[in-house]
Write a structure and sequence with these properties.
The complex is a heterodimer. Chain A is elongated, with a radius of gyration of 25 Å. Chain A has twelve helices and no strands. Chain A is 80% helix and 0% strand. The mean pLDDT of chain A is 90. Chain A folds into two domains: 58 residues; 200 residues, Orthogonal Bundle (MetI-like fold), CATH 1.10.3720. In chain B, a hairpin with a 2-residue loop joins strand 1 and strand 2. The mean pLDDT of chain B is 88. The chains are: A mainly alpha, B alpha/beta. Chains A and B meet through helix 9 and helix 10 of A and strand 5 and helix 3 of B.
Chain lengths: 298, 263
């Protein structure tokens, strides 16, 4: 808990800098409006105005916080289409859009992790795969995801696959890579002595994998999963942009930018950040529990 | 045909091993001839690069000789390894950090397919043998270096191998711990009647433990002297102050020095 004060200090500094930036960013609009109305703005009035515009260039932190609150709790509890009134999530709420993105993220993350682990196992055990897979995996990550995402969606759409799966595939595309890299390193972590020991028992390949390589790779696995789940979320959001999707955090970002709803954009961004942080934290909890059970408390 | 009872457990004839390195070939072993009888405690002593560890690894089928023949229990090293003829103790304990002490000792038993009940009774037995009974559920990091090395010896004893190959098992430990472990190792050897091949850097350790001391010298790695110890099998620690002990130590030291004269 000693860490809490520095963390709060850093957060407070960032918020203060944000507020300081809001005034010059939005001052132009406030002054233009005042001039048209033929009034002279005093400095305090100008500052108040920059913090409470409908469509500011840079929304103030409290505006974003209020939008987050209104578009989650308030919308679902009291909204006409909210959960309390209809029994299903409102399509105006970030809970609904967050869930749409989250479901694609989780599916893509699951497929990506499985694919990454599978490729790593192949690379470690097969010379041909060792020589051939990694360059392709690296090349795949050098292609901008924004360029390839629309093609994947169009191609899949042409063969009748729409909705969750195309988004999950783009999440997979981004999330398998850190898992491959981490797990290749992890599965190769046992030193020569440990491998020699297995040989003196004349252990077969499966036993070496199950009893030595796999447990050795656990710390590496969790480190890669943390990177992978954040990448999976980015993939799902990017996948929602080019399709004109009507649901998901990506769709909120897109419609926000069409209509100049900066507050909506920023609250969707924060919702994504909160989602990513929560998922990484959840993996951290699983990591600690697993490693403690293995006697490797980190 | 030789009598089964007296046939050597390990027998090497004209054994050579050459490593190809960037700087040209390295003769790790040259014309090694050695017979080790059942129940012997053989120490290999010599400076770094004399091939003592390499020879142990050839016995264990972890290295392949370039020429010559070697048999372990009358089999090739590979067949002997597959028949699980030996337990190997490395320089570092090499316990798996994610397994408890009991779990580590159980590892070879799991791999070799012993039944669950058999695993548990064997783990209990060998942990008693190395005096670690109270530590079965501890993780390796909770034990001292000496205790970890004892656990790794227990791991090598857990299955029915009648040969124990030990590669400088106490090299990284301080002298007080090492003395205690040497005493325990002799007790263990007397109780289990295993054949032990033991690599060491330490003259007192080699003389104290062995029935046969193999002195080796480097470049090329070869045997320069084989000393059959006249010391009795029963050896209290203070045997190291007797004239016999000092005389054997002297002969080992002479052998080591002779090996270095060519440098």
């Amino acid at each position: 808990m000693r860490n809490i004060i520095p963390v709060l200090a850093v957060t407070a500094t960032l918020v203060a800098l944000w507020y300081a930036a809001v005034i010059p960013m939005n001052a132009q609009w406030a002054q233009d409006q005042a001039r048209r109305a033929g009034v002279e703005l005093t400095l305090p009035a100008l500052i108040v105005d920059t913090m409470s515009q409908q469509r500011p260039r840079l929304p103030a932190p409290h505006q974003v916080a209020a939008e987050l609150w209104n578009s989650t709790v308030v919308e679902e509890m009291t909204g006409r289409r909210g959960f309390m009134n209809t029994g299903s999530l409102s399509n105006r709420s970030l809970v609904y859009h967050g869930w749409v993105t989250l479901s694609a993220t989780l599916l893509g993350f699951a497929i990506g992790s499985a694919l990454g682990i599978g490729l790593a196992v192949g690379i470690v055990h097969n010379r041909a795969m060792d020589a051939s897979v990694m360059p392709w995996a690296i090349a795949s990550q050098t292609i901008p995801i924004l360029a390839i995402a629309p093609m994947i969606i169009v191609v899949l759409n042409a063969i009748g696959i729409t909705g969750l799966i195309p988004k999950a595939i783009i999440s997979t595309y981004l999330s398998f890579f850190p898992v491959v890299v981490g797990m290749v390193k992890g599965l190769r972590a046992p030193d020569q002595m440990q491998l020699d020991l297995m040989k003196t028992y004349s252990a077969n390949g499966g036993q070496v994998f199950a009893k030595l390589r796999w447990p050795s790779a656990m710390p590496y696995l969790f480190a890669s999963l943390k990177v992978a789940i954040a990448a999976a979320l980015v993939g799902a959001i990017v996948a929602e942009l080019p399709t004109g999707a009507v649901a998901g955090l990506g769709a909120r970002l897109l419609s926000g930018s069409y209509y100049g709803q900066t507050v909506q954009i920023w609250s969707a961004l924060f919702a994504a950040a909160i989602l990513a942080a929560s998922m990484v934290a959840l993996i951290g909890v699983i990591q600690r529990a697993t490693l403690r059970r293995m006697g490797m408390a980190a | 045909m030789r009598d089964i009872a007296t046939a050597p457990v390990i027998s090497a004839q004209n054994l050579n091993l050459t490593f190809q390195t960037g700087d040209g070939p390295v003769h790790a072993l040259k014309d090694v001839n050695l017979d080790i009888a059942k129940g012997e405690f053989v120490s290999f002593i010599g400076p770094s690069g004399c091939g003592k560890t390499t020879f142990l690894r050839v016995i264990a089928d972890l290295e392949q000789p370039s020429s010559g023949t070697i048999s372990v229990n009358g089999l090739t090293p590979e067949a002997a390894r597959k028949a699980r003829a030996y337990g190997y103790v490395f320089q570092a304990a090499g316990l798996y950090p994610w397994r408890t002490i009991a779990g580590n000792v159980k590892l070879p038993l799991e791999i070799m397919g012993y039944s669950r009940a058999e695993q548990d009774s064997r783990v209990k037995k060998v942990l008693e043998l190395v005096e670690l009974s109270g530590f079965a559920r501890k993780f390796p990091w909770q034990l001292s270096g000496g205790m970890q090395q004892r656990a790794s010896i227990a791991r090598a004893l857990a299955f029915d191998a009648d040969i124990l190959l030990m590669d400088e098992p106490f090299g990284a430990l301080d002298e007080i711990v090492r003395d205690r472990l040497n005493e325990q190792l002799l007790e263990l050897w007397a109780r289990t009647e295993k054949t032990i091949a033991f690599v060491t850097h330490s003259i007192p350790e080699a003389v104290y433990l062995s029935t046969k001391i193999v002195v080796m010298s480097p470049r090329p790695g070869r045997i320069s002297d084989v000393i059959d110890s006249p010391l009795p099998r029963e050896r209290p620690l203070d045997i190291r102050d007797t004239p016999e002990f000092i005389e054997i130590s002297h002969r080992v030291r002479e052998g080591l020095r002779a090996g270095h004269l060519d440098d």
